[in-house]
């Protein structure tokens, strides 16, 4: 800006693939990050930091970037290689959030299951998870975006058994056709994914499980689509996102052959979305009679979220004839379901 004001010519920025900014080996990234990119403002993230809202929950970034090479995704290109924030830094920010009215921490990243691998400890999340719940004021901890192919027994067990950690599994399956998943540069199939869901519910029958699926990925056949519909029918997920495939710049899928006709993609999205709505409604109805602990987020509508409901994109739980305040945690019993949403009475 100063050069422009002083009359000098402006040099245009040339975009770079951010994956090239850090070493390929994850364990070598921490040192480079600390030497070249560390903030001078410290672990708190800023000297004059202020929350922009007063919601009782907040996202807490634990890592950035991604090492996976999903053929439909450009995140690695513009966000770079996966790099974890150090535990001391993350926990310090968690304390700051708790001091500023946050009681539910939503740990976010492009791939939470990879946290710590670049710090030399792939099971680091399991080791520090309890520390979030020990922070004064924190009542609930929630993990986002768990890579199904990287889910491990130790992390699963830690999420179920650690005090104040919500039994909530955000597993982005994307599809269940082995052939399509390979084209997506992903792993798994219907049998493996159903086995993972069975493991989760064996440990925590009331756990919330959500997922996203891409319909119409290049090469998707009617058989592939039918297999996905059958999986959604069997999985009994709590929340489902259905997205039609579209070409994205800087992705491998952009150049794949066998593109599905846009009209057919639209038809499949509509059909699968209708099925998904039906299935999540049935799953919600199965919760009638269950005990839930609800974080109130809307005082006017007496509405909030139970442990199995993620913020903004999942269902809600509401009370009738009560006067709870935003930020209250209320123990209740589910008495009714309205689609994906629940109604409860005070326990």
UniProtKB/TrEMBL annotation:
Cofactor requirement: [4Fe-4S] cluster
Entries under CDD domains matching the protein: Radical_SAM
UniProt keyword annotation of Transport present: no
Domain named Radical SAM core: residues: 52-283
Cited Pfam families: Radical_SAM, TRAM_2
Keywords, comma-separated and alphabetical: 4Fe-4S, Cytoplasm, Iron, Iron-sulfur, Metal-binding, S-adenosyl-L-methionine
Molecular-function annotations in GO: 4 iron, 4 sulfur cluster binding; aspartic acid methylthiotransferase activity; metal ion binding
GO terms under biological process: tRNA modification
PROSITE patterns: MTTASE_RADICAL (PS01278), RADICAL_SAM (PS51918)
Bias kind Polar residues: ranges: 1-12
SUPFAM superfamilies: Radical SAM enzymes
SMART domains in the record: Elp3
Residue numbers spanned by region Disordered: 1-24
GO cellular component, one term: cytosol
PANTHER family tied to this protein: RIBOSOMAL PROTEIN S12 METHYLTHIOTRANSFERASE RIMO, RIBOSOMAL PROTEIN US12 METHYLTHIOTRANSFERASE RIMO
Cross-referenced NCBIfam families: MiaB/RimO family radical SAM methylthiotransferase
Record's protein name: Unannotated protein
Lineage, opening ranks: unclassified sequences, metagenomes, ecological metagenomes
